[in-house]
């Protein structure tokens, strides 16, 4: 069910499910633009935001943004726009728990890594689900404190390219884009957003595990010729798997896209690196692990992706299991 374009405007109720670095960044910008924003996340962040607001730190300075905050998914009730930002490992369980609390005309935007999330959410809810490609470098510098390193643009579109021609969905996409653009978030609507998600997945596969295993920023990762050669071979694997899955990614363009990341964000460590540094499970199963699984199913060899996936899983296996992750249940993860 698509929300009417008029239902979103200068004062939209927004809920951020999984208020980690990405969710807090975009939620903060929407709150600054005058929207009523509720952050749903883990207790330390929620407590900090309730006590002192959300601290947003960018190159231009640091400011405190007033938001509501809760650990309960029920806090999304009444929201017209829901930003779905939980880790890919929690997508299905969170979507299932979220469904009873969503307003009938709500729009859910998946701001997540990987190519499967929007489809998983759509299988659990009746509301419109919009996949988004997120190009932003952020991290949580502490409870209730989001640090922005660079970029912040989005690409949104339909789950299926042909649906972009449906007037109601086209109006919904335009309304969502307008809300973000008014909050100074650059947004592009693309009927081929799923291809863009595959491109983002490829870039994540090329950087995330390597940055995590070395605990190194992108600039240092790409400075080593041996790593650049490894990334190029990995890109070839992902392009081959995508082709077997019916998604065309041009190899020269993909190599160029990967090469452009390190100069643009030399000081950024991957989200996987941040997770491992904190002793938390990462999304590696939905990055290199996804490529390895799809490659096996489609008969495409992926030895580099398999190796990086296995090495990150080895690091995760050393974590203390009881402290690894908070159960989703009726709460949201990050």
Percent of residues in beta strands = 15-25%
Q: Compute the average pLDDT.
A: 92
**Structural shape:** globular
CATH architecture classification of the largest domain: 3-Layer(aba) Sandwich
Total domain modules: 2
Which regions have little confidence, pLDDT < 50, spanning 5+ residues?
A: 1-6, 323-334
What is the H level of CATH, i.e. the homologous superfamily of the largest domain? NAD(P)-binding Rossmann-like Domain
Number of β-strand runs:
10
Which topology of the largest domain does CATH recognise? Rossmann fold
Specify the structural class.
alpha/beta
* Amount of helix: 40-55%
Radius of gyration: 19 Å
* Spatial separation of the terminal alpha carbons: 27 Å
Q: Indicate the multimeric state.
A: single chain
The top-level CATH class of the largest domain is Alpha Beta
What is the fold's blueprint, element by element?
Layout: E1 13-17, H1 21-32, E2 36-40, H2 43-52, E3 54-58, E4 61-65, E5 68-70, E6 81-84, H3 91-98, E7 107-110, H4 117-122, E8 128-142, E9 145-156, H5 167-182, E10 187-189, H6 193-214, H7 218-223, H8 225-244, H9 251-264, H10 271-277, H11 288-298, H12 303-317
Parallel strand pairs: 1-2, 1-6, 2-5, 3-9, 6-7, 7-8, 9-10
Antiparallel strand pairs: 3-4, 8-9
Helix pairs in contact: 6-8, 6-9, 6-10, 6-12, 8-9, 8-11, 11-12
